[in-house]
Amino acid sequence: MEIRDIEYVKAIVDKGSITKAAQALYITQPSLSTYIKNMQQRLGFEVFIQHGKKLDLTYLGEEFLKYGMQILKVQEDFNDTMQNVLDNKFGRLRLAIPLLRSSYLVPVLLPKFQEQFPNVEVQLNESSSKTFFHLIENGDVDLALMNRTKEGHRLETEKIKSEEILLALPANHPLSQFGVYSNKEPYPSLNLDLLADELFILHQPNQFSRQVADDIFAKNHFQPQRILATRNIETAINLVANNFGVCFINASHTKHLNYNGKISFFSLKDKVYVDLIVAYRKNRILPSFAKAFIDICKNSI
Distance between CA atoms of 120 and 122, rounded to whole angstroms? Predict the structure, then answer.
């Protein structure tokens, strides 16, 4: 068994086909097919079995990948130790960050990081945070910048800051007049009960922000009568700007979205906060440059 064997098998399983795996590995599809064929001959057993166009792992293939993943984690731990011993002059940091956050945080964080570690390559994975647990546990990313979720106990986490969840209403909405203003608070507060007849634009049930919204509803004994589900924060906020419903939004995002004054933001009467965290694999000893990136996040966000 070679490290490349494990990496190639893992890529095929993750991507679902040899063609997509080859693209991810930056090799040609025929080269990958030939490699897998020769690998199986070398190992002495079939790793994959073909069902039509689909490749499934055999029983031995499943065992191969299970033990192979343990080997990759040991290799990762060794690389971390080696980087620390070699004073982190060279290395690679694989960072997962949601697409919207990436648009305004990466331009702030990366220049500061690269100034300290010019020889450390940074790879970005800009995707939905619901995939981050799998990416971390599978060894595909080193750090994930995300909101804390109920599943967070499976990972090591470090808190960056707390962020308030706000209500977003069209600027000319009649209910805006019921906002309660305080000189000490950046946003007026609004009673959620007033919005019983409004269309709520929420994320899909498997997204963290939807879970936050559902928790808010449960805590306030509130049930929206109408819901429109979307996966995109910008879609939700643009709909609100066009007088089509209301939504929840993280206060940090409001400074970086273009809504041209068409939206008013309100605190909930009982304020709700979520933690922004950096997460990584449990029991992992991070290289110093990864720890430095976390410190940059704490000092810059």
Answer: 6
Residue 56 confidence class, pLDDT cut points 50, 70, 90: confident
With both helix axes pointing from N to C terminus, report the angle between 3-15 and 59-85 in degrees, rounded to the nearest 10.
Answer: 120
Cα distance between residue 16 and residue 94, in whole Å: 22
Give 122's strand partners: 93
- What element of type H or E holds 157? strand 155-170
First-to-last CA distance in the chain?
A: 44
Measure the CA–CA gap between 97 and 4, rounded to whole angstroms: 27
pLDDT in tens, 141-189: 999 999 887 765 678 999 999 999 999 999 999 998 899 988 888 899 9
pLDDT of 83 higher than 80: no
CATH fold, domain 1-85, is Arc Repressor Mutant, subunit A (1.10.10)
CATH architecture of the domain covering 162-275: 3-Layer(aba) Sandwich (3.40)
pLDDT tens digit sequence for 249-281: 999 999 888 788 899 999 998 899 999 999 999
Angle between helices 3-15 and 18-25 (to 10 degrees): 120
Give the residue extent of every domain in the chain: 1-85, 162-275
Tens digits of residue pLDDT in 204-221 = 888 888 989 999 999 999
Say if CB 248 and CB 209 are below 8 A apart.
yes
Q: How many CB atoms lie within 10 A of CB 287?
A: 24
